[in-house]
Design brief:
Layout lengths: L8 H7 L11 H17 L5 H6 L20 H5 L10 H20 L3 H9 L2 H7 L10 H18 L7 H8 L6 H6 L5 H14 L19 H9 L5 H17 L5 H13 L6 H14 L6 H6 L10 H16 L1 H11 L9 H6 L2 H7 L7 H21 E2 L2 E2 L6 H9 L4 E3 L2 E3 L10 H6 L3 H12 L5 H10 L8 H5 L1 H5 L6 E6 L2 E5 L8 E3 H12 L4 E4 L9 E5 L2 E9 L6 E7 L2 E5 L2 H10 L6
Antiparallel strand pairs: 1-2, 3-4, 4-5, 5-6, 6-7, 8-9, 9-10, 10-11, 11-12
Helix pairs in contact: 2-5, 5-6, 8-11, 8-13, 11-13, 12-13, 13-14, 13-15, 17-18, 22-25
């Protein structure tokens, strides 16, 4: 090879008449040219190397030649293949282009990112991700690309603080394949974000284990391993993305110290209890965390000071964190108790209802510093602990404790109408749902939550089930709630969402599904059917799949009879109507119906 005007090998090739610009876009060719330059730089001052390469007896490099003309494959296919004879993966293509970008950064910033990246991607990082390789293909390329994607997306969102590009973020959030140019064209890779990416990958490496390095003492607050596995498969939620960002951003800035747990606890509480489903919510929250990171090493004092504005999260949760921060700063017993109840897997840091029930929230409204006396501190602490104990008895990790026969729901109904609405339906509440969950009832500071407090105050922690039964048995409720309280079978008829369709007190449908085109029953006639069965009768009840058709008792002890609950013609009042042996009778109460059925020898004595 002859040198011309001091040019490198690759420059000579590029200047030759057979050079095509499209090669610049091919990572294999680009990598080859880079390697030629590297060989030239390493051996430019050596001599007699060519003879060693072409010696017939002891050549340093040999090749196996395969004639491809009989395989029916074009030369272009082999240009796109690597030394293994397999097509380059998306990660291998990405890596080649990324290293070129790092070389530019090194030139501008006098750094050594390319050398560091090349070394670690072939050693430490590869050794880590090899343990998470696909069991079928034995490749980890897609896994590491997913991790890079999640980290890069978080870094990109930080740069979207003023004029966010939601379209680009949607692409980054999606599952469609992205190559290097997708990231590069939208500005994902600048010097700082690239350094952050590499530092984050470093933090994942565990020198003493095949798995990622874990930094929290346990997974009560945050499950690092679970977050990582979800990121590996790119099935991570916006909340989990933010939590991942908060953890590794803190570690990059401060390293491992005693304040890490407090930082992550605050982040867990804010993110888990704020609705973060859309990309604008995600951007607002992650930028808020980035701003708070400056105070991350003293986050409790930062949160406690209401002069510090915190945006991007639910205001009610921010207020709760301020109150808890003030309590934690008082003494260790408050800190211990708060952390213990916060780590309840159903509450996940949301214990505002306990602060409310114990009177602390009301005190905070008047005194933003919680400057109470030692005696008051003890009083509030005892009340707080009492409500914590009851909460842990009534709620398990997945939601409400499953008391038999809906004892809790029926006892709570004795205290008032606590039902929550979802679209056109009302629900007796379920464990997990944005609109109709117990967690929603616990969160919202309104009259319905006060109903829950009244039930809490009636409970004895040593005999909870008996206390619930007593409340139900002593109930004197005579309005629409009375049959729901009396018969647990009615709640069973309300389906998995415990839905009823309520128009007014006398027009209530029990829904087995979410709509009235699913099987449903009429509340008052169904409760009558349950009473009749309770006293020993065989009752056939006919529900329906349409509001247009009547729901009624259709047979009692083999006798055909129709008992409906409806409005009289030209009369706004609701009543029970009975069609039997050609007669039509109307009654106001279930007791009157029982008397009528007895007089006509329909009931079994």
């Amino acid at each position: 090879i002859s040198y011309e005007n001091g040019k490198s090998v690759s420059e000579l090739i590029r200047d030759s008449h057979w050079y095509f610009l499209s090669w610049d876009m091919d990572p294999t060719i680009s990598s080859m040219l880079l390697m030629l330059d590297a060989i030239d730089e390493k051996f430019c001052n050596e001599s007699n190397l060519y003879r060693k390469l072409v010696s017939n007896n002891s050549a340093l490099i040999t090749f196996q030649f395969i004639e491809i003309k009989n395989f029916g494959l074009s030369d272009s296919l082999y240009i796109k293949m690597n030394a293994r004879g397999k097509e380059l993966t998306s990660f291998e293509n990405f890596k080649a282009k990324f290293e070129q970008l790092l070389e530019q950064f090194d030139s501008t910033n006098s750094s050594h990112l390319k050398k560091e990246f090349s070394l670690k991607i072939d050693n430490d990082w590869t050794n880590l991700f090899w343990n998470y390789r696909d069991s079928q293909t034995q490749l980890f390329d897609k896994k590491i690309m997913n991790i890079i994607r999640v980290i890069t997306t978080n870094n990109y969102a930080i740069k979207q603080n003023t004029t966010p590009n939601y379209s680009n973020l949607r692409d980054l959030f999606s599952n469609k394949d992205l190559n290097f140019y997708h990231y590069f064209d939208i500005g994902c890779f600048d010097y700082d974000s690239t350094v952050t990416l590499m530092k984050t990958l470093d933090l994942l490496v565990n020198d003493s284990s095949d798995k990622i390095k874990i930094y929290l003492p346990n997974n009560h607050i945050l499950d690092e391993y679970k977050l990582f596995r979800k990121a590996l498969d790119n099935r991570i939620t916006p909340v989990e993305r933010i939590q991942l960002f908060a953890l590794y951003s803190y570690l990059i800035k401060y390293g491992v110290n005693n304040n890490l747990v407090e930082w992550i606890r605050i982040i867990r509480n804010l993110t888990e209890n704020t609705r973060i489903e859309e990309i604008p919510d995600y951007c607002a929250s992650i930028n808020s965390i980035n701003e708070m990171l400056v105070f991350g090493n003293d986050i409790i004092r930062f949160i406690a000071d209401d002069a510090n504005n915190i945006i991007g999260f639910a205001g009610i949760q921010v207020k709760e964190e301020r109150i808890k921060a003030l309590l934690i700063l008082k003494n260790e017993k408050w800190q211990e108790k708060i952390i213990q109840i916060e780590n309840h897997q159903y509450f996940k840091g949301q214990i505002g209802f306990i602060l409310c029930f114990s009177g602390i929230s009301d005190y905070y409204k008047e005194n933003r510093k919680l400057n109470w006396t030692t005696a008051e501190d003890e009083k509030f602490y005892i009340k707080f602990c009492n409500y914590c104990e009851k909460s842990q008895i009534l709620f398990i990790d997945t939601g409400l404790c499953k008391f038999k026969d809906f004892l809790f729901e029926r006892a709570l109904l004795c205290k008032g109408n606590y039902l929550l609405k979802k679209r056109r339906n009302d629900s007796f509440l379920i464990d997990s749902d944005r609109d109709i969950s117990w967690k929603r009832l616990l969160r919202d500071n309104n009259d319905k939550r006060i109903i829950l407090m009244e039930l809490f105050d009636c409970l004895d922690t040593t005999r909870t089930e008996k206390a619930l039964q007593t409340i139900i048995s002593e109930s004197e409720i005579l309005d629409w709630r009375r049959y729901f309280i009396k018969y647990p079978e009615i709640l069973r008829a309300c389906g998995s969402n415990k839905f009823i369709r309520w128009k007014e007190e006398n027009d209530i449908l029990l829904l087995s599904k979410t709509q009235t085109n699913g099987y449903h029953r009429e509340y008052y006639t169904y409760s009558l059917a349950l009473w009749l069965r309770e006293i020993g009768n065989r009752v056939r009840y006919r529900g329906d799949y349409s509001v247009e058709y009547p729901k009624c008792i259709s047979q009692i002890n083999g006798e055909d009879i129709n008992i409906l609950y409806q409005q009289k013609i030209n009369d706004p009042q609701y009543c029970y109507s009975i069609e039997y042996n050609g007669d039509n009778k109307y009654f106001s109460t279930q007791k009157e119906i029982i008397n009528y059925l007895t007089e006509n020898d329909i009931l079994i004595n």
